[in-house]
Records
---
Amino acid sequence: MTAPRRYIALEEHCMTPGLQRVHDDLLAEHGRFQPAANVERLLDVDAARIEAMDAAGIDVQVLSHHSPGAQISDPRAVEWARTANDELAAAIARHPSRFAGFATLATGDADAAASELIRCVEQLGFTGTMIHGQAGGGFLDHPRNEPVLRAASQLGVPIYVHPAEPPEAVKDAYFRDVHEAGPDAERMEHMFATAGWGWHVETGSHALRMILGGVFDRHPNLQVILGHWGELIPFYLGRVDIRMKRLVRHLRKSPAQYFAEHFHVTPGGIETIQPLLLTLATVGADRVLYSADYPFGAAETAGRAYIEDAPISEADKSKIAHLNAEKLLRI
Ligand code: GRE
Ligand code: ZN
């Protein structure tokens, strides 16, 4: 029997106790619901998580804080980010062969966020950062976020662009009143606005804003990772390109070219074959990487089977499982 393929998973969430308390307060303020089992699994970065990884056949989790991480509009967020990243570094130090890390950044202060990213990569050995939705009041194409983009680009580490809770005005305009009042109505609204659909539209728009806003002309070295099979973009890339190509004369390349040269895509726990095949055909096997979206993805043991069973070459499976991650993250 051949040895099992090594798997490195890139969208694997955790939470440090200090940030969890802040998130709890935020959730309580907005009357939102977070299942206790997820909180427990997010907080664990030791035995239970490693047991789940073993059961799922995952060798390495690149840990990231659960949305919104330290992206909280509070002057203390800069300090919260430092503490959270130090705690993450301690977990990685306890299990260096099983964990790597993406930094959480207090993007409300972009200069502090850039310095923290440099500290995390140079001193703590982190492999990049995960940004959740709007950073400091704008998406990453906003001029105020230049310091963060510059730091990532100069360090040669990727930015994982992940969804976050949409603004209330967006929820009001797009996601209210989908079914009659009742015990599930509020949770339905929330799910429709977030992981059930809205998140992915928002994050796809975030990535397109980066392309259309010229981020990659300013930072030709910058690489971005998208979860959830590219947040709808692989499906619509032809449409985006044809409709917007003639309006991007301020850019050096077409939207599809930027997507092909600056983006990497992971499943984000969506275990279906059609988007895998579409994504492979769109960005190529060198830009598809594995992720399980722990602890929100599908049940433990399903984790890697759909990749192993997919109608794609063994060479491509190895690129997705670990080779591309080793190269991009230098781990
Ligand atoms: C995610 O991080 O992608 C996620 C959540 C919560 C529910 C579903 C989901 O944070 O995909
Ligand atoms: Zn996620």
---
Amino acid sequence: MTASVRVRFAPSPTGALHVGGARTAIYNWAFARRTGGTFILRIDDTDPNRSTAENTAQIIRSLRWLGLDWDEGPEVGGPFGPYFQTQRADFYRAALEQLKAAGRVYPCFCPAVELQAKRALAQVQGGTRGYDRTCRRLDPTVVASRLAAGEPHAWRLAVPEDQEDIVVQDAIRGETAFPASAMDDYVLVRADGTPTYNFATVVDDSEMHITHVIRGDDHLSNTPRQILVYEALGRPVPVFAHLPMIWGPDGRKLSKRHGATSVEAFREEGYLPEALLNYLALLGWSLDGETTIVLAETLKSQFSLDRIAKSPAVFDHEKLLWMNGYYIRGLEPSELAERMLPFLEREGLTAARQYETHPQWFVALATLVAERIRRLSEAAQWVGFLFTEQVTMDPLAADTVLARPGTRKVLDQVKQTLATLEEWTSAEIERSLRALPETVGLKPRLFFQIVRVAVTGSTVSLPLFESLAMLDRRVVLARLEAALAYAKG
Ligand code: GLU
């Protein structure tokens, strides 16, 4: 019987959750769901200077927003906790004791400055950059007395003298061999008692019975070092799967210079979580090489490691925008209305209408906007004129459209017609206005452009008749009146 899959996402809370980390989390989660395994969230908060509780909270918020859930970890607990590395010192201590007893580690008393000087010299002379094993050669009685005297010391892994080259079997990349000569006796526990990343990670992954380590390939060079720690501890080595990097369009590692990179920033820009999830899932993985719309449900039932690409994926903002627009159009109008709301509020657009008292009005609004936006944040620019008494007039539109001869006549006619209309619906408004252009001898396009600018303040707007119906008649009439001021003839 094979043990059931246990995977983890182990972010360091030294900043926000970025798309690269989010993709790693999605793949781990999807793999666990697909295999009926367990998805664990562990917070690698060992860097005391850069780890903060706010970052942890933000990472958790971003993961939840994307729709990911974990079976063990912060907020949910689990049998192999605690799930914060800073709370796991006992495990690291016990593992170190085990390695000491087995003679697989040795204390290193070399002061940091001395190590630095040696490294600098090695760099100049082209020698080995790693540790020269000075303390490994110390006489045991000397070691014992220096320890007894309380001399500061780190603990280094005693890499076996006959160590062979280490071959990493990666589920995505295949085999990569690392020369044994590159494995100096690296530090597992620092002089201040804290574990290094390569030690803490192995202890935790092994205590938590992780079966597959799925992470970014920036960690590939750590993997042989971690394998040696597993072997020293006599614990089973998990399967490794290193994900290819994410690049910007210029072929360089994705970073801020390419635009938003944190999940929170995408949320604030008005991306839907299901769109970002879909986009990131396909950034280095494919269902069949063709399908572009992949829902969480599909990932949960279809995700597999063997369809992960070997080469870097390029982050394409345009494609993500397209996908977001697709998901926006697919939302129920009532759902879109609710999701748009915070973005309208952010622009101060709720004063006149309240969602609570006019839900249908907002649903109608969402229906009109859905086809025109690719991000929720774009809604405000389309609907602003529906939330104010007076309209903000685009001077160019006023100049090019309202200043033409004939405008006054148009505005007067429309005003009269609308003032006496029995029913204030878009169908009635349209029916009554359609007949007018001919009577004033104007082309319909020009005629309605005048009305559009007068009422919306712009030459580009939501559909005119629907827009008029969404405004109070009183407001429409006042705007038509106010627009007379721009009319020249
Ligand atoms: N805390 C590490 C990181 O964020 C985890 C790497 C790993 O998955 O082992 O890079």
